[in-house]
Amino acid sequence: MLRLAVIVLLLANAGYYAWSQGLLRQFGYAPQEQSEPQRMNQQIRPETLQILKVNPSKTSSAAPPIPTSPPQATAANDSPTPASTPAAPAPAESAECLQAGVFDDRQAEVLRTAAAGLPSGSWTLEPTPVPGRWMVYMGRFDDMETLDRKRAELRARKVEHDRAGGTLELGLSLGRFASKEAAERELANLGNKGVRTARVIQERAESPGFTLRLPSVNDALRAQLDVLRTAMAGKTLRTCG
């Protein structure tokens, strides 16, 4: 059975070969010829067509070089580079305003002399009038024994007091005030507590005064302020208020 199948397959292959090669055309068995005569009619002067031999070595040397595209600019080169980069501004030096006072006429004159060597415009002496001051006063007593007796009486009446001091010794102050009117009101209140011998006096008259002001003290100026210390009459520089 297998032998018969092999014989049939060989005969089929031989028949297909004879058919495809046109060997059976006389018996009416052959593949249909494919032709396109219209393409021949579309040719233009086919007699001028020449077939040239190509020399591989000349072809390779005559071939134009393949252009290489220029390297792309990096993102940094695409943007224009500034001619120069401005330097960052230096941080401003910190400075503070300082002042001292109040100084009287004599003290202010000493300060003017001491501050003359400081940079121009770095300091001023601003007028600061010193207002008068009024006191509810008791005294002047003849001796300490009388003073002590009056102090005991005031403590018993719960009246606050202290030593008047200065040219008003021996005496007692029952309060100091910026105006005469305020002092007189306090004297009336003390009368209600049994105080009868006190009176209102002007402890200090209004007088001219001056405040030393340094509006912008930086490190360089601060190093020069030692020249003022002996002329400040014991006062110290403080932050401007």
What is the topological layout?
Elements: H1 2-20, H2 37-41, H3 56-62, H4 75-78, E1 96-103, H5 105-115, E2 124-127, E3 133-139, H6 144-156, E4 162-163, E5 171-177, H7 180-191, E6 199-204, E7 210-217, H8 219-222, H9 226-229, E8 238-239
Antiparallel strand pairs: 1-7, 1-8, 2-7, 3-5, 3-6, 4-5
- Main structural class: alpha+beta
**Quaternary structure classification:** single chain
Helix content: 25-40%
Strand content: 15-25%
Name the overall outline.
rod-shaped
Work out the number of β strands. Answer: 8
Summarize the structure.
The chain is α+β, with helices and mostly antiparallel strands and 241 residues long.
Description:
- The protein is α+β, with helices and mostly antiparallel strands.
- Among the domains are: 96-129 and 208-239, Alpha-Beta Plaits; 133-204, Alpha-Beta Plaits (2-Layer Sandwich), CATH 3.30.70.
- Helices cover 33% and strands 18% of the residues.
- The chain has helices at 2-20, 37-41, 56-62, 75-78, 105-115, 144-156, 180-191, 219-222, 226-229, and strands at 96-103, 124-127, 133-139, 162-163, 171-177, 199-204, 210-217, 238-239.
- A four-stranded antiparallel sheet has the order 2-7-1-8. It has a four-stranded antiparallel sheet with strand order 4-5-3-6, with helices on one face.
- The longest helix is centred in the N-terminal third of the chain and has 19 residues, at 2-20.
- The radius of gyration is 62 Å and the shape is rod-shaped.
- The termini are far apart.
- Residues 73-77 have low confidence and may be disordered.
